[in-house]
Design brief:
Blueprint: H1 6-13, H2 17-43, H3 49-71, H4 81-102, H5 108-115, H6 118-129, H7 136-153, H8 163-186, H9 192-206, H10 211-220, H11 223-250, H12 253-259, H13 263-275, H14 281-297
Helix pairs in contact: 2-5, 2-11, 2-13, 3-4, 3-9, 3-10, 3-11, 4-8, 4-9, 5-7, 5-8, 5-13, 6-8, 6-12, 7-14, 13-14
Length: 304
C-alpha cells in the first residue's frame, strides 16, 4: 500500500469500521451526484445555466458553511489560498456552467456517461503524478467500468447527441478530473470540510454576474423547477461534496474516482423513472458493467 495521507489512509487500508464508513460515504456521493443530472435536466428549461449554478451554490455554500462551523473551521496555509480559490472556481463555477449548458441539448444519462469518463483520467494521472501506483484491482475494474460508460453513451435515448452539448460535457469531465487531482493535493495541508466550504464560496463569488438573471428566473420558473435547484444545493452540493471530501481524504484519488463509475448506472435508472428517458438494452448492459467494475476496484484491500 502506498502512503496516502498517513495514518488515516492506513486505517482505511486495514478495513473494518472506517472502511465501511468510507464505502457508505462513497455510496451517498454516487447517489446524490447521479440525481444531480436528473435535477439539472428537469430545471434546465426554466433556468439559465449560470442562474441555476448560482442559486445552487448559494444554497450549497450556506449548507457547507453550517457543516464547517459545526466541525470547526481550520484556515488553510496562506501559500495554498490561491490553489483553493482556483479549485473552487473550477469545480463549483466552471464545471456547473459546462454541465448545466450541456444538459440543455443532451439527455441526463448521456451527460452522466460523458462526465464519468473523468475517473479514468484520474486513475491514470493519480498513478503518474501523485505516486498512487496502479494496483491490479484498479487496472482491471476501471477499464470494465469505462467500457460500460462507452456503451451507455452509444445509445442516447433521445436518438441524437448535439455536438455543442457533447463538447461541454467533455469539458465538464476534464474539469472534474483536474479538480479531483488538485483537491487530493490540497487535502495534504487543508482540512477537508473547510476546503470544501471555501472552494464553494469561491465558486459562488465567480457566479455572481448571473445574479440578475437568477432573480428573474426565480420569479418566472415553476415551483417544481426551483425546488429541483434547491435540491441541487442541499444534497448533490452540501451533502455529497462533504461525503466526497471525506472519502478522498481517506482513500487514493484513483480508487475514490473509480467508485463514481457507478453514477451512470444510477442516473439511467433515475432518468427512466423520473424523466421517462427509457434506456435501451445496451445501456442496461453498460450500467451493469459500470457496477461490476466498481465492485472489482473495491476488492483490493490495499489503498494504492
Amino acid at each position: 500500500m502506498n502512503r496516502v495521507d498517513g495514518g488515516v489512509s492506513r486505517a482505511v487500508g486495514n478495513g473494518g469500521g472506517t472502511d465501511l464508513k468510507v464505502v457508505a460515504a462513497a455510496a451517498i456521493t454516487v447517489l446524490f451526484w447521479a440525481s444531480a443530472f436528473i435535477a439539472i435536466r428537469f430545471a434546465g428549461p426554466h433556468y439559465d445555466p449560470g442562474a441555476m449554478a448560482l442559486l445552487r451554490m448559494l444554497i450549497g455554500t450556506l449548507g457547507l458553511g453550517i457543516i464547517a462551523a459545526h466541525q470547526g473551521i481550520k484556515l488553510p496555509p496562506r501559500r495554498d489560498v490561491p490553489l483553493v480559490i482556483a479549485w473552487g472556481v473550477g469545480w463549483f463555477c466552471l464545471y456547473n456552467l459546462a454541465l448545466n449548458t450541456a444538459e440543455l441539448s443532451i439527455d441526463a444519462g448521456t451527460a452522466s456517461m460523458i462526465v464519468n469518463t473523468a475517473p479514468l483520467m484520474v486513475v491514470i494521472f493519480a498513478g503518474l503524478l501523485l505516486g498512487e501506483g496502479f494496483p491490479r484491482a484498479l487496472l482491471i475494474g476501471a477499464p470494465i467500468s469505462f467500457l460500460g460508460v462507452v456503451l451507455i453513451g452509444s445509445q442516447s435515448p433521445t436518438g441524437h447527441i448535439e455536438p455543442l452539448g457533447l463538447l461541454l460535457a467533455v469539458a465538464a469531465a476534464v474539469l472534474y478530473a483536474g479538480c479531483t487531482l488538485l483537491q487530493k493535493r490540497l487535502l495534504r495541508t487543508v482540512d477537508a470540510t473547510t476546503l470544501t466550504w471555501l472552494g464553494a464560496a469561491a465558486g459562488t463569488v465567480a457566479l455572481l454576474p448571473w445574479a440578475g438573471r437568477m432573480m428573474r428566473d426565480v420569479g418566472t420558473a415553476p415551483t417544481g423547477a426551483t425546488l429541483a435547484v434547491v435540491f441541487l444545493g442541499v444534497f448533490p452540493t452540501a451533502v455529497a461534496f462533504t461525503t466526497w471530501s471525506y472519502v478522498l481524504a481517506r482513500s487514493s484519488a484513483g480508487r475514490t474516482s473509480a467508485i463514481t463509475y457507478a453514477s451512470p448506472a444510477v442516473t439511467i435508472l433515475l432518468s427512466w423513472l423520473i424523466l421517462a428517458e427509457v434506456p435501451t438494452l445496451v445501456m442496461l448492459i453498460g450500467g451493469a458493467l459500470c457496477l461490476l467494475g466498481v465492485f472489482i476496484t473495491r476488492m483490493s484491500r490495499s489503498d494504492a
